[in-house]
Design brief:
DNA primase DNAg catalytic core, N-terminal domain, DNA Primase, Chain A, about 55% helix, alpha+beta
């Protein structure tokens, strides 16, 4: 089955891209748009933009772009129907379906969804046992009361309890018609070598793990018996859960993290829950694993400030300091709070009231330099060699920081704390930095060797710097580059039959640049059409009419451009005034994210002049719309110029092979005429012709 077109249209109309993106990423308004570091690739500066007015997002770094539906598809690794269902649930829209898929297609599409349904069923099953079953009340609830968790807190984290029987959950799921294969894929049941099936979680309190959309994707389960091992049992990796890619409590904490612009990072489930109950709700845990880059980048979507909480009796603090270096390497600002000996966030919450606990966190947080210096120097006990080792460890952390100004400040602080020359510290830091870069370079070389290191040619819609400058409105840089690659033969040279030499082979690469230039001008034609197509140039002429008249019968080499153009023309014939918004909506309903992304790229500019610019600076800046007639005229000339150059190139290629005298003479005359047209257009555009094309 698929969602009806009417229902899809309602979802697309109701879904606000800003609201959807803010569920996953912390955005800051700059000018008319909202900005953040891109959630789709690793970056240190904000290049991910959301336009509420246009209802689109775009990353100027990696190129990802789309609507609210595309964003959910990317973030949740969801199919188009799954993304629509997510948005329908968010905006309380009832879904309507129509039959269209085979059973095999439906099974393939819903496999991931089936696992999520099983996970949600299991969560509700464990919650129900905790609330209503005699053992759940006497054992499970008793444990949570002992930990000091209120019923409201238990409900907020949807905690549960699993009975000690081998197959309590399995039998309950069977009664609800769940397939064993799906339960096994979900990691909820196990099968031993003899084929016996049994529950994974037995006789434990249950901590559901939610993704950013609030869907249950895994479980953590704590044993209530002193000698039972393991103490914590977690879900395995499944189609919906990968270890090291999620943080416990992030769904509950994300809004508070954004609001406070700080994230507390702990080690365990109960630390998160106790702090949440104390009133500190911007807290997450690393799910009992070593901190990973993906977890760090997940935090970085919501804040650049992280406060790491360490247990006071943790003998492995030094070993866990690698996590701090990883946080620093990702550009985060790191502070540390060390609890008194024998205490952890959970236990200390129970000893102090809410106000006292929050005051403790505020008064005991240290920057990572102070913390690490005190930690290492207390072990050196005046031993010069140990002190040198400690200094090197501290400098290594500073060298991880990507921001040069921050590094400089910390080198100064480290110099004062350790009594070591700042120049020495910087020198040592530079050595460590270069050593790390060399290591990464060698690892990359090894990876390239393993994958045979194939050269990838970028697609035509990813222009190099010269062609990109043309699309941004710059004329001379493009043509200077262009003319360096293509010679314009003189009339004398044209009347002489060209000889086929090795030079022809070397020119093949240059000719490929001509093809790129043609395709980029096709892209520019489509951009102008989408942005200004319905704008009148005079009382009788609109932009689309001018472009279609001037560029009539010119072929579009890029299939995606051609598809959009043909739809545009088709709807004009039907009397529909097409624009970029209409096209995006059309291709969204057709489940064509590539076309949607392309339209967004064409209509979106990275930099926009502030609305207050002219008022503040009293500087009048002309926009493209102000000079549109001239811009259109010059663009059409550029496209025609490139077509002429392509014709000249084809003529030269034909003249390299033996031809009958009459045909050869005809080609030579044709080339002379093309050369003259080329000069005329160049003169009109103000381009200096250097005798090459």
């Amino acid at each position: 089955m698929r969602i009806t077109a009417t229902c899809v249209s309602e979802i697309l109309e109701r879904a606000d891209v800003l609201e959807v993106v803010q569920d996953f990423v912390s955005l800051k308004k700059k000018g008319q748009n909202y900005w953040a570091c891109c959630p789709f690739h690793n970056e240190k500066s904000s290049s991910f933009s959301v336009s509420q007015a246009k209802q689109i997002y775009k990353c100027f770094g990696c190129g990802k772009a789309g609507s609210a539906v595309n964003f959910v598809m990317e973030m949740e690794k969801a199919s188009y129907p799954e993304a629509l269902k997510y948005l329908a649930n968010k905006y309380n829209i009832s879904l309507e379906y129509e039959q269209y898929q085979t059973d095999e297609q439906q099974e393939a599409q819903t496999q991931r969804e089936s696992v999520l349904i099983a996970m949600n069923f299991a969560k509700n099953h464990y919650k129900n046992l905790l609330k209503t079953h005699a053992e759940g009340i006497s054992v499970g609830q008793a444990y949570f009361k002992e930990r000091g968790f209120s019923p409201q807190t238990v409900e907020a984290f949807e905690l549960g309890y699993s009975l000690p029987q081998w197959d309590n959950f399995l039998q309950t799921a069977r009664n609800q018609q769940f397939v064993e294969e799906i339960l096994e894929q979900s990691g909820l049941i196990l099968r031993n070598e003899q084929g016996k099936i049994y529950d994974r979680f037995r006789g434990r309190v249950i901590f559901p793990i939610l993704d950013l959309a609030g869907k249950t994707i895994a479980f953590g389960a704590r044993s209530l018996k002193k000698d039972e091992q393991p103490k914590y049992l977690n879900s395995p990796e499944t189609p919906v859960y990968t270890k090291g890619e999620m943080l416990y409590g992030l769904f509950q904490a994300r809004n508070e993290i954004r609001k406070r612009d700080n994230c507390y990072l702990t080690e365990g489930y109960t630390d998160v829950i106790s702090m949440y109950q104390t009133g500190i709700q911007n807290v997450v845990a690393s799910l009992g694993t070593s901190l990973t880059e993906k977890q760090i980048r997940l935090m970085r979507r919501f804040t650049e400030n992280v406060t790491v909480l360490y247990d006071g009796d943790s003998a492995g603090i030094k070993a866990s300091l690698r996590g701090i270096d990883m946080l620093l390497a990702e550009g985060l600002n790191v502070k540390i709070v060390l609890f008194p000996e024998g205490e952890d966030p959970d236990s200390y919450c129970q000893k102090l009231d809410s106000i006292a606990f929050q005051a403790f966190l505020e008064s005991h947080n240290q920057d990572f330099i102070t913390f690490k210096t005190q930690l290492y120097l207390q072990d050196s006990a005046g031993d010069p060699l140990k002190k040198a080792t400690a200094i090197r460890e501290i400098v290594q952390s500073i060298s991880k920081i990507p921001d040069a100004i921050k590094r400089s400040v910390f080198y100064q602080q480290c110099s004062e704390l350790l009594g070591v020359s700042e120049e020495v510290l910087i020198s040592e830091g530079n050595k460590l930095f270069l050593k790390e870069q060399d290591k990464k370079h060698k690892e990359k070389e090894q990876e390239n060797k393993r994958t045979n290191s194939k050269t990838i040619t970028p697609p035509f819609d990813m222009p190099d710097a010269a062609f990109d400058s043309l699309l941004q409105g710059s004329e001379m840089p493009f043509f200077e580059n262009f003319e360096d690659n293509f010679e314009i033969p003189t009339e004398t040279e044209l009347l002489e039959k060209p000889e086929k030499t090795d030079k022809n082979k070397t020119e093949e690469h240059s000719f490929s640049n001509l093809q790129k230039a043609i395709r980029n001008q096709e892209k520019e034609s489509l951009r102008l059409l989408l942005k200004y197509g319905q704008m009148p140039l005079n009382a009788d002429l609109k932009v689309w009419q001018y472009l279609f008249t001037e560029l009539d019968e010119m072929e579009y080499h890029t299939a995606e451009y051609r598809k959009i153009l043909e739809l545009y023309q088709e709807k004009l014939v039907e009397g529909i005034e097409v624009n970029a918004d209409w096209l995006k909506n059309h291709f969204s309903t057709q489940n064509d994210p590539q076309a949607v992304s392309m339209i967004i790229h064409l209509e979106t500019e990275k930099y926009e002049i502030s609305e207050n610019w002219e008022k503040m600076h009293e500087i009048v800046t002309k926009t493209e719309a102000d000079v549109l007639p001239d811009a259109l005229y010059k663009h059409c000339l550029r496209r025609k110029l490139l077509v002429i150059k392509e014709m000249m190139k084809e003529t030269v290629e034909k003249l390299t092979i033996p031809l009958p005298p009459d045909e050869e003479q005809e080609l030579l005359i044709r080339q002379i005429n093309l050369s003259q047209i080329n000069r005329d257009i160049c003169q009109e555009l103000g381009i200096v012709v250097s005798g090459r094309y």
